[in-house]
Amino acid sequence: MPPQRFPLDRLQFESDTDQPLYRQLEQQLRYLIGRGLLSSGEKLPSTRGLATELGLSRNTIATAYNQLLAEGYLEAAHGSGTRVAQSLPEEFLRPHSSAKQSRQTDFSPGLSQRGEQFRMFADWLPTESGPCQPFRPHVPALDHFPRPLWRRLSESRLRRLPPEAWEKVDSRGYKPLRQAVADYLGQSRGVECSADQIVIVAGAQQAIEFVARLLLDPGDTVWQEDPGYPSVQVCCEMAGAKAIPLPVDEQGVNWESAPPGNPRLIYVTPSSQWPLGMSLSLERRAALLQLAQQQRCWILEDDYNGEFRYAGRPIPALASLDTGGNVIYMGTFSKVLFPSLRLGYLVMPEPLVEAFASARWLADRHSPPFEQAALTDFLTEGHFARHLRKMRTLYAKRQQSLINSLTEHFGAAVDITAPPAGMQMVLRARNPAHHDKLAAAARTAGIEYHPLSMYSISRSNPPGLILGFAAYDEQRTEQAVHNWADAYFRRVDST
């Protein structure tokens, strides 16, 4: 087996924070080791080499390495460089923090085994990273969101909601909003459902967590796309299940290589696969539904970016083709309108609704009633449909703007994968040996991206950078790509 490639593109640093760069590097290396992304015995780059690639001082790298050597994460031998320790310290799941340790007393009962698992995913927590920089994925065009209209709807509902709406809120969600969502899905996605089949949730992440918690038992198997959402794997593992990565091709997820045994749950993003963007073909949709009926398993259909398609006719949602009641359909308004809205929904067979509503009640009761009411008006008065039409046109232009700038400034040095749907594209260096230079140049130029390896479950996917385009106008895109390409070619020419 060839040696694993050092995941350089997973290392990203924040300049607008009080935390020193060496400490940021320490924490990220600890995380990579804890998650198995750096294996025992794997050789790390030299301090000089890593400093050059990251654009940091050699002393910064050496300080981080020395701390991890002292903690037992790394080991060094004369003539063979620095490697991940063969035997990791017992405390490798407990990130070093002198500030936290100073507050500890002799009494420290610790977390449960399940609680300890959460420590491994602490680095997924978002930070206050300042203004959005090109080309951060997942961000809609906030500069084109109708804020005055939303403010008017919110203030109106704040005045008009009766007192009982503030005292007792259905944990399934505000009934008029559930009806508005049912009407919208029937008209736009062909998903015929009633308001009684819908539970309003705090976005897609809560939806995934509820599905994993309520439908999975320890030892169950979950199939998911690879590359795909890592939070699906996390939630399934927390429920004691095992996530099986399935490769994707031009027709979407391919389960021919799946190991023997019946899955309990299959998670798919058929409208616009995250992060590569292809649609699941109609033939595979039919086959997947047949498989679910035969094996009596659930399909969680995440209709991610189903609203944003720029070429061709959209294929019907899986839920619209489901005759066996195997599909649970999820969607979110957070990525369509604005991220902090935290309103999404699950559509499910009615026998499941009571349990999911109870889970919502125990977790956080319900979403804020006036936000649900304002969104109801946004939907029923036609504002949502008009906003979607405008955003489809705008995003198609912004996608093409990014393609044009990348082509002009990088030329034949890169390959661009721009799917006909979604809010992101994938960029790869045509020469695989230059991928790290492409990522390092992005950091130098202040470019935000998500490494494709961040979403690779099996670690078998080729390297790439995921770029969002929806939030950035033509002028900002052009300037950012110009600076990035300049930094990239200077790195290439210096070697």
From TrEMBL:
Q: Which PANTHER family match?
A: HTH-TYPE TRANSCRIPTIONAL REGULATORY PROTEIN GABR (PTHR46577:SF1)
Gene3D superfamilies recorded: Type I PLP-dependent aspartate aminotransferase-like (Major domain) (3.40.640.10), Winged helix-like DNA-binding domain superfamily/Winged helix DNA-binding domain (1.10.10.10)
The name this protein goes by in its record: Transcriptional regulator, GntR family with aminotransferase domain
Similarity comment text for this entry? In the C-terminal section; belongs to the class-I pyridoxal-phosphate-dependent aminotransferase family.
- SMART domains, from UniProt? HTH_GNTR
Domain of life, per UniProt, equals Bacteria
| PROSITE patterns the UniProt entry points to | HTH_GNTR
- Domain named HTH gntR-type is located at 19-87
- Keywords of this protein's UniProt record, alphabetized? Aminotransferase, DNA-binding, Pyridoxal phosphate, Transcription, Transcription regulation, Transferase
Q: Give GO terms: molecular function aspect only.
A: DNA binding; DNA-binding transcription factor activity; pyridoxal phosphate binding; transaminase activity
A Pfam family reported for this protein in Swiss-Prot or TrEMBL: Aminotran_1_2
